[in-house]
Amino acid sequence: MDVLGTLKGLVTDSGFAALMKAGGWQNLIMIVIACVLLYLGIKKKFEPLLLVGIAFGCLLVNVSFFITSANGNADALFHQDMWDEFLNPDSPVYHSYGEILKHGGLLDILYIGVKAGIYPCLIFMGVGAMTDFGPLIARPSSLILGAAAQLGVFLAFFGASASGQFTGAEAASIGIIGGADGPTAIFLTTKLAPQLLGAIAIAAYSYMALIPLIQPPIMKLLTTKKEREIVMKQAREVSKTEKIIFPILVTIFVVLLLPSTAPLIGCLMLGNLWRECGVTERLSDTVQNALMNIVTIFLGISVGATTIGFRFLELKTLLIIALGLLAFCFSTIGGLLVGKVMCWLSKGKINPLIGSAGVSAVPMAARVSQDVGRKFNKNNYLLMHAMGPNVAGVIGSAIAAGFLLKVFGG
Amino acid sequence: MNQIFFENEEGQDILSASAAEETEAVVVAPAPETEAKVMPLADAGITAALGYGVVFSGLFLLLAVISIMGAVFKASARKKAAKAAAEPVPEVPELPAKLAPGTAGELKLFDVPDKEAAMIMAIVADKLQKPLNELRFISIKEVK
Hints:
The structure holds two protein chains of two kinds. By secondary structure, chain A is an all-alpha fold. Chain A is 71% helix and 0% strand. Chain A is built from 23 helices and no strands. Chain A has helices spanning 3-13, 15-19, 24-42, 48-63, 80-87, 97-103, 106-115, 118-130, 134-138, 142-148, 151-162, 168-175, 182-192, 197-209, 211-222, 225-228, 240-257, 262-276, 281-304, 309-312, 315-345, 364-376, 383-408. Chain A is globular. Chain B is mainly alpha-helical. Helices cover 42% and strands 8% of the residues of chain B. Chain B is built from two helices and four strands, in the order E-E-H-E-H-E. Chain B has helices at 41-86, 114-128; strands at 5-7, 13-15, 108-110, 139-141. Chain B has a two-stranded antiparallel ribbon with strand order 1-2. The longest helix of chain B is centred in the middle third of the chain and has 46 residues, at 41-86. Chain B starts with a strand and ends with a strand. The interface between A and B is large, with 78 and 49 residues.
């Protein structure tokens, strides 16, 4: 046996050697970024359920990018080249999932669920099963706040287009970060600009985790002390029958209005119907817990896999991060401004702080409204009032995504 | 050597020509260029305004539908309540059981809300380790 040759082969084939070759430094930077994201997820608890998975997916794909064998990089966990061919209309394997299944690595196989738009919809099913739409049914005017808080989506879309760096489809995917809804952002980006998926998913989930830091200064800036102290009247009680009819009505009206919202709205409302109808507790429980956890694992790791160094480390990524922050801020501003109008119209019965909860991020945004409200009036309990706009925001961002998909999805 | 396998029409594995070349470093193709160009600013503005409008109109439609549903349910709840109020209350035969010696009804409250009084009575009963209905509270007065 040629011991020296074997050792030499081990050294030259190792990832450490590959890091020193052309482009290897990019993977090295991504490994550092993955470690930072892991720190934020584990230590700072920034959306840990998804961020830890995304960060580890990022780590895995960047350390295993160099896996070589007799079949070249055929043993790698994720093959960006294969997915590029998958999206290339001139390729013989255009849109061939069979090719991915045949030659793909573990992360390629898991990524099929993202590419086909399955994971975001299943997550929406779980979100529906976990959400009580009662506060929204009791005060339907919350829907206006949910609509107003989509301002950031369209301003960021316009900003991205104006930057001249992105196509319309890419700008639409960046704009949806302002919806503060991870699954919706992933769903739309996969359909319109899959090459930006990693950056957009990381931006969306990071900003969602940062909502308690991003929103309060804007809330204080745009509202007066008197407005923040407004105590809202308890909303009426909603009957069980209303809660059962609600998901059916929403599905009929929203999907008829914008058929492209069917996957997201359909799954959200099916999950909610399972929760409310009272005869499918087992299904509701499975969707809320087991299924949601399994899909979260697959979604996180496969989204993280798209953050390969050479694709992620671009000026575009920085622009996406900046535009995403702007989108979040403007969505909060949109909700607050319409909240102020509603406060004025209701002669001071509505606390405008609940407007900021119109960005989806359930229930974090509603909790922020509650915390800021209580800071100024210890007897103020805004949580249930803010849940209305909060869940309205989920429907609003799904409609915004449906619109953008209709316009740019071809 | 990097190899990328594709399947041809006969289902046989073929090697892509570009990938068959010997390379030292790992070479990755750039992202496929999209045919779509950057959107003109005016179009982007119109799309953004239209999109925001669509979200508002969609949720307004939903608001109308939910409001109608809410009104129907509220009206039916009111009807039920009115019907229940109109129906004669069936006479309940008087219970022969002896009333407890002390009841909240006999209690006189001076500047003390009902809730606080109930709490005080519960605390006293707990401290004395006696059931509440065996205690007789005559009055509760706030000491100012």
